[in-house]
Automatic annotation (TrEMBL):
It comes from the Bacteria. PROSITE patterns: HTH_DEOR_2, WYL. Residues 2-57 form the HTH deoR-type domain. This is HTH deoR-type domain-containing protein. The keyword Iron does not apply. InterPro entries: CBASS_pafABC_assoc_protein, DeoR_HTH, HTH_11, PafC-like, WCX_dom, WH-like_DNA-bd_sf, WH_DNA-bd_sf, WYL_dom. Keywords: Transcription, Transcription regulation.
Amino acid sequence: MKIDRLLSIVILLMNRRLIQAKELADMFEVSVRTIYRDIESINGAGIPIVTYQGSGGGIGLMEGYRLDRNVLTDRELADIFSALQSVSSYGGTEHTLLMEKISSVIPPSQTAAFRSKTTQLIIDFSPWGLQPILEEKIATLKEALEENRTVAFDYVNAEGQSSQRSVEPYTLVLKGQAWYLYGYCLQRQDFRLFKLHRMKGLVKEKREFIREDRDMQELPWSTDYQRVTSASVVSPILLHFTAEGRHLAEDRFDSTELQPDGHGGYNVSIHYPEDGWLYGFLLSFGTALEVLEPEHIRQKLGELALGVAKKYAT
């Protein structure tokens, strides 16, 4: 990702007087043109970088300029390192170089303490087992994001309807346990959130686009979810877990949500949107769960369960 590459370049220039643009391009697997755009971005951030021409030339920090390592404390560097470890757990091997460079600015006398800080919290986003298809999609989208190129794919929505989309990609989002792409859909002429698992035939197109400056502090993927679900939310849905299924309830819900039923089981009140996902979620608990309220959801689950039973009837 671009921010990782920019930080890596800065740290490299802190430790080396000069470096060739071609060497940087090979190191980060991008074009020389991209490296020079990175240099412009770094200059714009207030770190003066000079390009020296001729033999023995290259890219370096302006003579006399020194970047104070203490602009970031060891704790802050450790937090950045830990965040990169988390991202790298899901096909983010390009972050390894930056992690090595951060480690290189830690004095040997503080290495053990730094390692201790970076192992106090580990967040691993990768699933149990490999998902090469999903990792390939993420890699393609990262390339498109870097190059400001549109992507095309067939998309199947939650209702099972399929459509062809061409999208200007803006942000990869890991929300809950699923990956999404947030971008501008050329067919809908608006920003949309697309679930990667619902994408088929994803390709990077040749068409470039000018990225609009959007304030991601507003978390559009959160507000979009609230907007979509506000009209369909059911309030409340009362669940009952049997004593045999209490471990499933404890695994899925916070202890503050679990109300003992006096017989070893739990009652749980939830507020989820009523859609296909909800029914699949409730059925996944099998006979360990019974929906007590509302009645129409009980009836719907009964119909679905009967349909499943008929498929396996002998």
